[in-house]
Amino acid sequence: MINPSTKAFCADFGIEAVEGSAYPKLGQTRAIATVEKLRAKDDGIARLVMTTLAETSNNLACVDSVSLWSTYFLVRKFRAEIESNPSAWLDAWDRMPVGFLQSRAQELSGTFHQKDALGGLLYERLRRVYGQQELGQF
Q1: In the chain, N or C terminus with fewer CB closer than 10 Å?
Q2: Angular region, 57: left φ>0, alpha ψ -120 to 50, beta rest
Q3: What is the pLDDT of residues 31-71, one digit of tens each?
Q4: Domain limits of the chain?
């Protein structure tokens, strides 16, 4: 059974918390334990994570443990930039193909932890937004 507090927390962001045995649909998550761990670490950051994934284009399908942890670490890394200009953060996430990048990260399964692989792919794109100049074209 899902903790009512966790269910309400997810609902605050328009995400339905479903049992782990369910196959999540758009706007649902079964990563209940991950949500609870993030909230226990820092409820404010957990809220930014949920906002990032729930309020940006095409990312609702990606609310799983991998995307939650990757986003958590990126929110921590870019906290000053987010606080300085939250709309730029959400705009950057609107433009990123998170689902596609997650599928690329899954190709590295068994070689890298999924959250680390996805985090690296997202980080590289976010650095383009937050001042990293291109060092060359590949």
Answers
A1: C
A2: beta
A3: 999 999 999 999 999 999 999 999 887 666 689 999 999 99
A4: 4-129
The pLDDT tens digits of the residues spanning 81-100 come to: 999 999 999 999 999 998 88
Instruction: Give the tokens for residue 25.
Output: 């649909």
- As a whole number of angstroms, the distance between CA 105 and CA 94 comes to 19
Q: What's the rounded Cα separation, in Å, for the pair 11 and 14?
A: 5
Single pTM value for the model: 0.90
DSSP string, 78-128: THHHHHH-HHHHHHHHHHS-HHHHHHHHHTTBTTB-HHHHHHHHHHHHHHH
Maximum distance among all Cα pairs of the chain, rounded to whole angstroms: 51
One-letter identity of residue 12:
D
At 28 the three-state DSSP class reads: strand
Residue 135 above 70 pLDDT? no
Q: What are the residues whose beta carbons fall under 8 Å from the beta carbon of 9, sequence distance 6 or more?
A: 35, 39, 46, 50
